[in-house]
Structure formats: structure tokens, C-alpha cells
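Appendix B. Raw example, untouched.
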Amino acid sequence: MRLRAAIALALVAAPRAAAAQDDGDVYQADEPIIEEVEVRAPPPRASSGSVAIRGDEARTTPGTQGDAVKAVQNLPSVGRSAFGSGQLVVWGAAPGDTRTYIDDIEVPSLYHLGGIRGLVPSYWVRSIDLSPGAFGAEQGRALGGIARVETRSLPTEGVHGSVAVDVLDASAGLAVAASPQARFGAGGRYGYVDRILEAIAGPEIGDSVAVPRYHDAIVKVAVNAGPGQEIGILGIHSGDELERIVSDSDPSARKTEMRSLYVERIGMRYRIAKEGTTTLVVPWFGVDRAKLESRFGTAPAARSSAATHFALRAQHERTLFVAEENETFAPRVIGRFGFDGLATRTQSERSGSSTIPPREGDVFLFGQPPGDETSTDAWTTYVVDLAPFGAATIDIGPVTITPGLRMNGTIVDVSRATPRVSMTPAVGETRFEPTLDPRLAVRVRAHARVDFDVAAGLHHQPPSPDDLSSVFGTPGLGAAQAIVVTAGQSTRLSDSTTLEVVGFHKSLDGLAVRIPAPNPPLAHVLSPGGKGRAYGANLLLRQSPFWGFSGFVSYAISRADRWAPWTNERLFDFDQTHVLTVVANQEIAGFTFGTRLRASSGLPRTPVVGAYYDAKGDKYDPIFGDHNSIRLPAFFQLDARAQYAFDAGPTNIAVFADVQNVTNRQNPEEITYAFDFRDVRYITGLPVLAVLGASLEI
């Protein structure tokens, strides 16, 4: 079933089918905004393959509905995620293996549930950057990449603000320079697309559409504490509820899913800069509350967690050596050392089938009912990661060498090492796991317009609290690791055009995978025996504004594999051989016209080669072929955007129309089968979708 185009034209909603499935500068609040406008070319890459996007560029990208944060999905190192997932799949790593930050504060995701909106309204986005791998020793706890949204600077004088309204939500922001020493800002956004859906289609819309409800808020404070000293405070709140319903005339086949996620963060930043030295201290505190309730017919399943985070980042940077100007190559050495610590306490509860929801590597079908076996568990985990680090930047003429070392000390404490049996007392488990992560990057400026760079690094990631259950996981899981090697070049073809090409190889080990035995050993449902690799190349041709024209061509070719001791090599569940994105914008007399083309290989799936009748359950069960041996059909989508902006005194007003999938192509997002597995059909994604909106800034 699909929504009528008239409904889709005004709303962001999937049809029922889609619904079923630093440098350390954290709150940069002191630079005048005009400095951002003058820098039109992309900044130098922080690491091989890293890309940065200005906020004003990101929010005019076609297909993002004016949401700057969603522009990160266009980058060459990011695979296309299924509609409504909001996942970041970076260089063959699972979505949960990429760390996401707002300034230097870690958040569970950059998006609201379902990926409908970014966690930060566009007005507050100064820039977005992504380091897909082989990043410096300052960062860790990630097998994937590091994605970071930097919030905009608070003004140094006057009152500034923004109001934005479209068919999805409304947002407002206000920033005030109370004095030369103190500046304040606050903003919020409220989504009402669920109310519009119900007003147009009635309460039964929940049987056709994944109905999202979301809101967020941000508060910023910046204080000049003295010469070269800054204090910043950042507060973040977001709330999400998402309901999916798949109706069926047979009540036993009706499927419902309700998810919620609430995120709160508050952090402080203290920065002091003196001649040749910079010191940064960022403590932050946060709470995450997540809940998932699903039901397939009469079979319920539930999972909830409440996580409390305490974090501290401290970094000191000093110029250690600067040669005389007349010396050969004029060497310079800058040293950085610091501490990156994160402690998380998670209280979790889970009930239902161990295979719902499925994890990467599971053979499953969309809409497949859960197994007959159900379990329940409640557990508490403490994961403390303490990581001192050191790095240096050594410039010797045209060569820059950046060695680094990160020393991880991870403490894992689990409340129950074995499942609860009757009234047996809880016997926990505590362990300490030290690891070393060496990093190295070398960049050579072969020409004024040409750079070459290579980088390599070892990365470790602590186990997820969800996997440490004695019933649904394995309390003894250790850290997974990745060895990443990259090589690339960057060429400035003209003053406004750059070409970047990067090749990468990633080896993965210690991945948590499900043990296939029908009765796995006690408290060993998962094994750390999973291995994998990913390799490929990215190309990014980028045109900064020139006579009003800007855009980029992004292309990635890659392959990602997984295996375990008891399985053959198979394709990674999120593998995409080809991903192409082309974006073009033209500004003319206040008008901006843009288009985006996206094409990608389909995701791997496991075929059904037969079926047999289960008399006890009165149903047919599938017989599977080789794991991930087929793919969904290729994805293709064309988006368009038109905007008109003008000044009315000190106020800038913009109105826009953003249309996704202008060709109304029915892109397959999933495979579904008839009850006896003889008939096959595709669940298609988003039809034509138009979002109309306006914004006002002073």
C-alpha cells in the first residue's frame, strides 16, 4: 500500500511498506560571523578522507528539506541508508560503530528517530565534518568514523535570531550579546507532521505511515573570562517517539512497533590560549532513555535502557620547536597531549525472542515472526574508558608527519555473569582491558596545488551494553578492533575547484556475532569471533561558488565482507558496491536552483529457495539459500530545490520548495513474501515528496 501522491506532496512520511521497516574547539563563540563568509573554499583535510561542509552550504543542498545535518549522507565515505533508518554506514562499519558529536559532546545519533531531521536545527549548524577512519590519537572508541556537528558562534554584539516554518516542523532561535564579555543563545524545534498526517488522512493513518513525533532544544552561553580565556556552556535536549503499524486481516499477523528516545546533554568548555600554547578542558554529563516495544500478533517483545554518561576531555597543545626562517626546510614541531575519558552506567531490561530485533549477520526476512522461545533479563553495566593520548605535528619543508599514541584502559562491570535461575543471587563480573592504539599520518605537498597523504591506525571499541546480557548476549565480551590504512591525494584544479581521491583498507577483528547453535552455552549467546574487512576508493570533485554555481560529484566503490570461524565469507549486511551522488546549485539574483542525483547498488539479502509446511504452527517456514547472495535492485533518485532569499532591512527572508524523488521512482527497500513463499514482491520507498517552508533571520 502506498500513500496517494497528494498526501506525499505535503508530508514527510513513508508508505506503509517503508514504515515497516578538532582541534578541540567546542563552542566557538568568539569569531565574527563574517570570517565564515570569507572562507569559501573547503578547509584542509584533518585526516585522509575527511570532509567538512559549511552549514550555509549544507542547508541549501537539494533533498535535505533545508536540514543542514542531513547533508552528511551525501559524502563519499557514507553508504546510502534505507529510508526511515537515519543510519550512518561509514567505510564498511556497522551503523553503531561511528561516533557522533555535537561540538565535543557525544550523542547517540545525529538524527531524530527515523532520520526525518537532524538533532540540531540548521540555524545552529556552523559546520559538519566527517573523518571516516585513520583519525588522530585524540579520538577513539570507534571502528567506523567520527562525525561532528560544530554549532555556530554566538554574536559579539546585538540581538540575532531566526524563525523557520515548514510542513514538518517549526523552529526558533535567539542569540544575544548582553555585553562584550557575555553572550547567550537558545533555540527549539517542534515537529507536528504527525498532526498534519492525522488531519489529512484521519487517525487510521497509523496503519499506513510510520508516524514520527519529535522535538529538540539547545542552549548556549559564552563568557570571556580574561585575556585569552573563554568559558562556554552547551545544553542539548531531544525527544522522539516513532510508531510503526503493519495491518493485516489476520490478527496473528498484525505487527506494531513503538520506539522512543530521549537525550539530554550539558557540557562546559574552558579554553585558555597563550603565546605558543592552548589548553582545552571539556567536561560533560548526559542521560539517554531508550525504549522499544514490538508485537507480532500475540507475541510481544520489549527492550528499554537508561544510560548515564560522565565524560572529561582535556588537551594541551604547545609549540615545541620553530626553526629560524633562514634554515633549510624551516622545521616546526607542535606537541599535543591530553586525556579522553568516558564512564557510562546503563540499566537495561529486555524480554521476548533473542532474534528480535535481528543483528548484523542474522539470516532473517522482513516481517518474519519471532521464534517460539522467549526470555527475559534485567542487568546493569558500567563501562569506563580512560584514554590518555599524545601526538605531534612535525613540519619539515613540504612534509608533515603526525605520529600519535592512544592508551586505552577499559573497565567493564556487569551485574550478572550468569542468567537468573529461581532465587539465585546475582554474581557479577568485573575486568580491566588495556589496549594501545598507535596512529601515524604523513602528508607531502608535492606542488602548491597537489598534496599526497597516507595514514594508518589501530582502533579499539568497547563492547555495547546491549550485548553484555547473560541471557541475550555474553557478559565476557571484550573490545573489537580495526586496523585502518588510507592513501589519498588532493588537487586544487583551480581557485574554486578541488579533486580528492582516497583509497582505504580496513581489517576488523573481535566482532560480536551470534552463535548459530540452537542451545548455545550458558551466558554465551554471542561470540567475539567475528571478523571482517572493507576496502575501496572514494572520489570527491568539489566546486566552491563561482559565478553563483557550486556543487560536487561524490563516488565510492567498495566491498565489505564478514565471517566467523563457523561460516564462510559473506557480504556485510550494509555492503554497497557503488554509491554516486551529484549535487549542483545555481544562484541568480536571490534565487537558488538546485538538483541532487543519487544512485547506489542494492543492499545484500539472503534468498528463499523453498519452503516447508509446519503442521504444529500451521504455517510455512522458509528454506534459505546462500547468505547475502542476492541484492535488492539498484537505487536511483532525483531531487530538486528552489529558494528565493531577500533582505528586508536587517532581516533576511527565504522561502523554499524541496522536492524528493521528482521522477516518482518506486525504489525497492525490502523484499516480502507470500505466506507460502511462492510469490515475491518489493516494499518500495518514498514517493514524490514536496516540503514547502520559509525562514526569517535577523
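End of appendix B.
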